[in-house]
């Protein structure tokens, strides 16, 4: 799996307060991709890997919770690993920290949404979590504005994932 490092503030390991391991999927239908909007931030579907899960198992669980659809491991192909050093990251808890977010990206075919089998948390419901398909070539017009300080980090992740995916298609 290709690894990309973003460290614009040149954070050193000892300056990192927290390391997060995440998984995200670029789910494609023709020239569209699935994005979620969670708390006013646009991101690719996915989330944290639970203890004891492989990255793909965590992603399959997250996709089932968010879309209601089950994916198999062979339906999700490796895309890249992003080591994203985030200086002064504003958390949901209104604290600021330096973090390293190690996100494993995969890609596959969008298989739909089954609202009956979605398993949204109370927090997701409260924060108006929703999914939608957007044109992959018009992603910049579908990203959140910078009024949410966390948006810039997730916008960068999506942009990087699309860039790597398009490079793969060449």
What secondary-structure arrangement, pairings included, does this model have?
Blueprint: E1 3-6, E2 18-29, E3 32-38, E4 41-43, E5 46-48, H1 55-67, E6 77-90, E7 96-109, H2 122-126, E8 130-135, H3 151-169
Parallel strand pairs: 1-6, 2-7
Antiparallel strand pairs: 2-3, 2-5, 3-4, 3-8, 6-7
| CATH superfamily (homologous) name | Nucleoside Triphosphate Pyrophosphohydrolase
Integer-rounded radius of gyration: 15 Å
Q: Summarize the main sheet.
A: 8 strands, mixed
Morphology: globular
How many structural units, i.e. domains?
1
- From the 3D structure, determine the CATH topology: Nucleoside Triphosphate Pyrophosphohydrolase
Beta-strand residue fraction: 35-45%
**What is the residue-averaged pLDDT?**
90
The stretches of 5 or more residues where confidence is low (pLDDT under 50) are none
* C-alpha end-to-end distance: 17 Å
Please tell me about this protein's structure.
The protein has 170 residues and is an alpha+beta fold. It has a single domain (3-169), classed as Nucleoside Triphosphate Pyrophosphohydrolase, CATH 3.90.79.10. It has three helices and eight strands. The protein has helices at 55-67, 122-126, 151-169, and strands spanning 3-6, 18-29, 32-38, 41-43, 46-48, 77-90, 96-109, 130-135. Strands 1, 2, 3, 4, 5, 6, 7 and 8 form an eight-stranded mixed sheet that branches. β2 and β3 form a beta hairpin. The longest helix is centred in the last third of the chain and has 19 residues, at 151-169. The mean pLDDT is 90.
């Amino acid at each position: 799996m290709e690894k990309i490092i973003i460290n614009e503030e040149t954070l050193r390991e000892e300056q990192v307060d927290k390391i997060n391991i995440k998984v995200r999927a670029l789910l494609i239908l023709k020239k569209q991709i699935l994005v979620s909007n969670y708390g006013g931030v646009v991101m690719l579907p996915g989330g944290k890997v639970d203890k004891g899960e492989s990255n793909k198992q965590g992603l399959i669980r997250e996709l089932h919770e968010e879309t209601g659809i089950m994916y198999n491991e062979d339906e999700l192909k490796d895309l890249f690993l992003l080591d994203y050093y985030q200086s002064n990251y504003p958390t949901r808890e209104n604290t600021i920290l330096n973090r390293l977010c190690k996100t494993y990206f995969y890609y596959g075919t969008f298989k739909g949404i089954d609202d009956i089998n979605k398993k949204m948390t109370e927090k997701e419901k409260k924060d108006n979590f929703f999914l939608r398909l957007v044109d992959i070539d018009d992603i910049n017009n579908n990203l959140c504005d910078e009024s949410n300080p966390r948006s810039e980090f997730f916008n960068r992740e999506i942009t990087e994932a699309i860039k790597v995916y398009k490079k793969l298609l060449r």
